[in-house]
Design a protein that fits this description.
- A three-stranded mixed sheet has the order 1-2-3, covered by helices on one side.
- It is built from three helices and three strands, in the order H-E-E-H-E-H.
- The longest helix has 13 residues, at 55-67.
- By secondary structure, it is an alpha+beta fold.
- Helices cover 27% and strands 19% of the residues.
Length: 101
């Protein structure tokens, strides 16, 4: 079964099309739970804004990337805005890429 680290590495291939930074470095991933027996990954994540017009695209892309990993049979994504996303949640690399650090 895959590890959380492998899932996070895979999710680094998912980008917010409006921001040239992946969703992991943006700080959009809050929690990952893996049920190894059932092959289910439960992902808790957020978006940069509640009304994000491309939110469904990002969620679908994240689901597809995780499902492509060996041993994963299902992905359940919980979208939350608690706590709300802020630029402080970005990695140092992401802040540098966007000229914020």
């Amino acid at each position: 079964m895959v590890s959380k680290e492998e899932i996070l590495n895979a999710l680094k291939n998912v980008y917010d099309p409006e921001i040239p930074v992946n969703i992991v470095d943006l700080g959009l991933i809050y929690d990952i739970n893996i049920d190894e027996d059932l092959g289910i990954v439960k992902l808790k994540m957020t978006l940069t804004a509640p009304g994000c017009p491309i939110g469904n695209y990002i969620i679908s892309d994240a689901e597809n990337v995780i499902k492509s990993l060996e041993g994963i049979k299902d992905v359940q994504i919980e979208l939350t805005y608690d706590p709300p996303w802020s630029p402080d949640m970005m990695s140092e690399d992401a802040k540098k890429d966007l000229g914020l650090g």
